[in-house]
Design brief:
The structure holds two protein chains of two kinds. Chain A starts with a helix and ends with a helix. Chain A is built from five helices and no strands. Chain A is an all-alpha fold. In chain A, about 20% of the residues are buried. The radius of gyration of chain B is 20 Å and the shape is globular. A two-stranded antiparallel sheet of chain B has the order 1-2. By secondary structure, chain B is an all-alpha fold. Chain B starts with 9 loop residues before the first helix and ends in a 6-residue tail after the last helix. The chains are: A mainly alpha, B mainly alpha. At the A-B interface, α2, α3 and α4 of A face α3, α8 and α9 of B.
Chain lengths: ~90, ~350
């Protein structure tokens, strides 16, 4: 199948790399991160929210490409499963 | 900051990744799920209740965002309905949190736990049985692929109250805001009580407003995003979010939510209702099992020691079983759906 050529390998690797970097940074600097992310003064409470958005952006894209690359895609325009229903 | 943050072990990380994935899969499919296992799961690792709730919320809103975006691509999300519901749900969360606080103050931790468990059992049993009955009826019908508007929703849609009517195009529904507001409020109230507002929001959108199960479960993700974001900010201001726990759950759950969202395009409409009902009813059993424990702590029943431990263990096992059963049905339905003919 020439489907393989259409698979998003480049995007998968790029978003996967960014995600891996984010998780590596989180756990490599675990103590500093926890100290900053649990501060309640100033703008610090926004840090967990900002981090959640950043992780979801890269990891969300990565997981999308991941299933795509595996060939697990949405059903293309559900053509009448209603074949049988319409006949009734 | 007096919150308790735990040391992460390999076992803890594996638990968060696996339950995160399964919770994400169920969320992507029925609009909510996972919180009822993740929160007690994190508490059993040693996290305090408030940290478990806060960290769970911090993974919930980005997960819901990714799921909502995915299902929006499939044309299943009614953003306007989601935002309208989310607005009144926020008020419900706020009032519900205040009520929870007063229950805790007046009746202690056991009283609060008892209230939450009774709310779980009553709401999930009633709504779960209703949804299950409807799903089974749909399965038996010849036109199982056509989702009919429930007669109650038909009545709600027929009520014209000038100045309050709203049209939701994706859901293909025109109803008075006087119906959406209390529904959103109840969703928020339940979310603040049992952490899973979707158990009232999704059936409410289906049976009260007349949305299809596909649109209701997808739109619930918009509500979950809004409530999760607001809740995370509130808890972050108290320094309670453990970002490590939240991001570890997110690591697994985003794989799951993408798959669950894709799964909705392969299954028949009654499958979403069936999975929702099964999970609700199994979780209801789980919470019913711990009610004697809390009654024991309040001195009403003589339940303590090994008996209490046994009931708590069985309760947690049932919650895990709820997710496992949901996963089994979703994956099975997807595999079956992939064999059906597709369009060009």
């Amino acid at each position: 199948m020439d489907n393989d050529a259409k698979k998003p390998w480049g995007k998968l690797i790029a978003t996967g790399t960014v995600t891996a970097i984010l998780y590596t940074l989180l756990f490599a600097f675990e103590k500093d991160v926890m100290a900053s992310f649990t501060r309640t003064d100033g703008m610090y409470p926004l840090l967990p929210v900002a981090a959640a958005f950043a992780f979801s952006l890269s990891h969300g894209a990565f997981t999308g490409y991941f299933w795509d690359a595996l060939g697990v895609k949405a059903r293309p325009k559900v053509q009448e499963r209603s074949d049988d229903a319409d006949a009734l | 900051m007096d919150a308790q943050f735990i040391e992460l072990t390999a076992g803890n990380i594996a638990f968060l990744l696996i339950v995160g994935f399964i919770g994400g899969l169920v969320s992507g499919f029925i609009g909510s799920g996972g919180a009822f296992v993740l929160t007690p799961g994190m508490m059993s690792m040693g996290a305090s209740g408030v940290v478990a709730v806060a960290s769970n919320l911090c993974h919930k809103f980005p997960k819901a965002l990714v799921g909502a975006r995915k299902r929006h691509k499939f044309g299943q999300v009614d953003i306007k309905l989601g935002l309208v519901m989310a607005a009144s749900a926020s008020v419900g969360v706020w009032i519900g949190a205040g009520f929870m606080e007063s229950v805790r103050r007046n009746h202690g931790e056991a009283g609060s736990n008892l209230y939450v468990s009774v709310a779980f059992v009553v709401v999930l049993t009633l709504v779960g049985l209703f949804v299950l009955r409807d799903a089974l009826q749909m399965m038996r019908r010849d036109d199982a692929d056509r989702e009919q508007t429930h007669r109650f929703a038909g009545w709600v849609q027929s009520v014209e109250i000038p100045g309050t009517m709203m049209t939701f195009h994706v859901a293909n529904v025109r109803v008075s805001a006087l119906f959406t507001l209390p529904l959103g409020f109840a969703t928020g109230l339940l979310a603040s009580t049992i952490a899973v507002g979707g158990f009232i929001g999704v059936p409410g959108m289906i049976y009260l407003l007349g949305a299809t199960s596909l649109v209701a479960s997808a739109t619930e993700l918009v509500i979950a995003f809004a409530m999760g974001l607001a809740g995370t900010l509130k808890y972050a201001m108290g320094g309670f979010v453990d970002i490590r726990l939240a991001m570890l759950i997110l690591l697994g759950s985003l794989f799951g939510i993408q798959l669950g969202a894709i799964g909705t395009t392969y299954v028949r409409p009654h499958t979403i209702k069936l999975v929702t009902a099964m999970i609700m009813l199994i979780v209801a059993v789980s919470r019913a099992l711990v009610i004697p424990v809390y009654l024991g702590e309040l001195g009403v029943l003589a339940v303590a020691g090994p008996a209490a431990k046994l009931l708590e263990g069985a309760s947690f096992a049932f919650m895990v079983a709820a997710l496992a059963v949901g996963t089994f049905v979703i994956v099975g339905a997807m595999l079956k759906g992939r064999q059906l003919p597709t369009g060009p």
